[in-house]
Amino acid sequence: MSQETAKPRLTTSAMIASLAAEGQRTRPAPFGHALAALARTRPEIVGMTADLSKYTDLHIFAEAFPERFYQMGMAEQLLMSAAAGMAREGFLPFATTYAVFASRRAYDFICMAIAEENLPVKIVCGLPGLTTGYGPSHQATDDLAIFRAMPNLTIVDPCDALDIEGAVPAIADHPGPVYMRLLRGQVPLVLDEYDYRFTLGRAALLRDGADVLIIASGLMTMRALDVATALRADRIEVAVLHVPTIKPLDRAAILHEAARAGRLVVVAENHSVIGGLGEAVASLLMQAGVFPVFRQIALPDEFLAAGALPTLHDRYGLSVAAMQATLKRFLSQ
Amino acid sequence: MPSILQSEQPAGAWRARIAAAAPAAQAGLLREAAREVRRRILRAIGRAGAGHVGGDFSVADILTVLFLGVLRLDPSQPHWPERDRMILSKGHCSAALYAVMATAGFFDLAELDSFMAPLARLNGHPNRKIPGVEANTGPLGHGLPIAVGSAIAARIAGASWRSFVVLGDGELQEGSNWEAAMAAGHRGLGTLTAIIDRNRLQQGARTEDTNRLEPLADKWRAFGWAVSELDGHDIPALLALLRAEPPPEGPPRCVIAHTKKGRGASFMEDRVEWHHKVPSAEQIALALAEIDAA
After folding, report:
1. Cβ distance B148 to A77 under 8 Å?
2. What is the average per-residue pLDDT within A66-75?
3. Cβ contacts (< 8 Å) between A109 and chain B: which residues?
4. In the prediction, which pLDDT does B5 show?
5. Interchain contact, B157 vs A73, CB within 8 Å
6. pLDDT value, residue B84
7. Residue B146: its chain A contacts at CB < 8 A?
8. What's the rounded Cα separation, in Å, for the pair B115 and B119?
9. Identity of the residue in B142, B157, B175 whose CB atom sits nearest the CB atom of A89
């Protein structure tokens, strides 16, 4: 037997693989607990799902408020329309499914029944971007591209457990519809080490640095912070601007940071290189006449492979190691 | 087209007249109102040079009976919380909806002349900007799943209002209807009524030659609904059936209303081309004469 076989064999990740690194601090089901906590004082909140309560952490709410939990079955078109039907009667529905099903399957129903009427339905979706090893059927690498063009829809991409806990009451208070990309299960806790709290529509500079500005959302903010720490060994100073609200963009904060001279500007996102935060920022900079050296770290424009999530993140450039290598390459160009 | 204007009454007068009439006289008044509605549809489509007159005429009697004789609503307060919620899922028949709603008094009859005019709110498909329109429809298969949410909301709130949806038969080919039908049957949403305008024609051909719907009643029964069938142009029958109050905890109610596309103008009846064809001035005159004589 060669030494090779002694290595643990990599297998395709479970449907929902944990994003937590070895030894990283986590909190369990932050969305479910935050929603249940909020629902104690907000009787209009109802939870609805298309047979994915456990996989979107909505089961925590369902256990706390069984009479306010609506299992709609595997029927995403119905889920969205029925949520609209309840929202117009004064309820505040949190509707959960996977991001692929909301964006690809229920689009017309979200658009016509929820967004056009500007109803306060909160669409909270698991498996955003590349957060499952299950292949293109479950990898929502295109959800931001699909949803960004929908008028009235606010789009939120939280980074960690703290961000999710802050986002839940904030999106509940927002009068219109919201799409939130969800990390579930044992969700890493990172942002409590920073002077930060989630504010809808606001970006936050988590750390400053003179050489590179990384503009990131969702789990890529977590990765960017690790990259920034690691690159100090190479005397590369990296600033990280966290943009948890993808739409509407915090134009002022992005322009303020991107306009600072002498920095490479990199947008890092857990999404296709097409139609996500990167292109949104690029458009903003162009129109504002701010022209830094601009690069994107994002998923390629292709249907991705199935496999083990950590190796997929390496393969497609989202891991800390891959990001470090990419940034160094950008800086040497 | 002076004959249309001559027969107009003040907005809202019809509902009051019908409510005040003796039960035996109500069907006659509704029949007269339905004639008025068809005239207004013709006028609106004629002026706009666009519309879906065939489906408007097949659903005209159903909508007239609902808005003038069945639904609990107050056109002067379109957002009255206790109103019945009524969604026209076959949104392309907006001219029929607008004509009935104006006749019921939701907005001025004169506004019907703006049907499909640029930037007018009376668009070719209904929108909630119009007082009394309960849902944006147009893409088919939207009304019933929204109404499932309405019916659940009414149940949680302990409200007494009911939910009605009028669907085309062709749109039953959309899968979202069956997601909703399954859920409504499963939950026993007894305050929900789906009325199917079964004119047997869709945009391009007969439903049964396009994607077969029959056995339609059996399908709804299999999904847990109580099914009734009637002639969708028989106003006394529509009135009697739709005024009945099924138990709120019982099965949801499906009414298959057998209708004729283009009903009211003999040259349009049961002819697929009248799905979207616009009548000429001569054809409008001919249709008006038939409506007056009916």
Report:
1. no
2. 97
3. 142, 145, 176
4. 41
5. no
6. 97
7. 81-82, 84-85, 113
8. 10
9. B157
Number of independent structural domains in chain B: 1
pLDDT of residue A252: 98
**Given 1.10.150.120, 3.40.50.970, 3.40.50.300, 3.40.50.12710, which CATH number is that of A24-188?**
3.40.50.970
Is the Cβ pair B183, A75 closer than 8 Å?
A: yes
DSSP letters for B241-283: HHHS---TTS--EEEEEE--TTTTSTTTTT-GGGGT----HHH
Q: With CA atoms as reference, report the closest residue to B96 among B138, B52, B129.
A: B52
pLDDT of B241-280, one tens digit each?
999 998 999 999 999 999 999 999 999 999 999 999 999 9
Q: What are phi and psi of A196, to 5 degrees?
A: -150, 140
Using the predicted structure, report yes or no on whether residue A2 has a pLDDT greater than 70: no
B34: burial class by Cβ within 10 Å (0-12, 13-18, 19+)?
Answer: buried
What range defines the domain where residue B129 resides? 13-293
**Distance from the B56 Cα atom to the nearest Cα atom in chain A, whole angstroms:** 22
Q: How open is the CA angle A106-A148-A219, to the nearest 5 degrees?
A: 95
What would be the CATH architecture of the domain defined by A201-332?
Answer: 3-Layer(aba) Sandwich (3.40)
Greatest CA separation for chain B: 53
Among candidate residues A135, A133, A200, A190, the one with its CA nearest the CA of residue A168: A200
Q: Does B173 touch chain A (CB under 8 A)?
A: no
Min Cα–Cα distance to chain B from A66, Å: 13
> Chain B: residue nearest A81 by CA?
B146
